[in-house]
Amino acid sequence: MSTECAHLDSVEIVDLPDEVAGCEECLAEGMQWVHLRMCQSCGHIGCCDNSVGKHATGHYEATGHPIIRSAEPGEDWSWCYVDELMFRLRGERPG
Ligand SMILES: [Zn+2]
Ligand SMILES: [Zn+2]
Ligand SMILES: [Zn+2]
Q1: Residue 94: is its pLDDT beyond 60?
Q2: Residue 2's pLDDT is what?
Q3: pLDDT of 70-93, one tens digit each?
Q4: For residue 4, what is the DSSP state?
Q5: Whose atoms come closest to the Cα of 44: which ligand?
Q6: Of 40, 33, 19, 35, which is closest to residue 87 (Cα–Cα)?
Q7: 24-36 burial by CB neighbour count: b if 16+ within 10 A, else e?
Q8: Taking a C-beta distance cutoff of 8 angstroms, is the pair 86, 78 a contact?
Q9: Pick from 20, 26, 47, 56: most CB atoms within 10 A?
Q10: Residue 64: pLDDT above 90?
Q11: How far is the CA of 67 from the centre of ligand 3 (A)?
Q12: 83 C-alpha to center of ligand 1: Å?
């Protein structure tokens, strides 16, 4: 089991966009989601595994982009699907 994520090179986007409309696939299909996740390689917004669509995981399986972060207010954790590790890319955030 890894203790360190080996995929940090794939991270292109650390911060969330100013506005997150919602899960892209759920919006397109008129579905509802529970929590939102952002792909840190390309910025895709998808929904969590508690959501019906599981579109964040679907995006990883379709693209191989390994790292997502929470797109929920006040949450800044990231998750690597390959290593199954949770971590933070930033220590302290002002505000
Ligand atoms: Zn990793
Ligand atoms: Zn979704
Ligand atoms: Zn992606």
Answers
A1: no
A2: 66
A3: 999 999 999 999 999 999 997 555
A4: S
A5: 3
A6: 40
A7: ebbeeeeeebeeb
A8: yes
A9: 56
A10: yes
A11: 8
A12: 5
- The closest of 15, 22, 17, 10 to 64, measured between CA atoms, is 10
Per-residue pLDDT tens over the stretch 1-47: 568 999 999 999 999 999 999 999 999 999 999 999 999 999 999 99
What pTM did the predictor assign? 0.91
Q: Ligand 3 mean position to 56 CA, how many Å?
A: 9
From the CA of 38, the nearest ligand is 3
- For residue 29, the CA-to-ligand 1 centroid distance in Å is 30
CA distance 12 to 20: 17
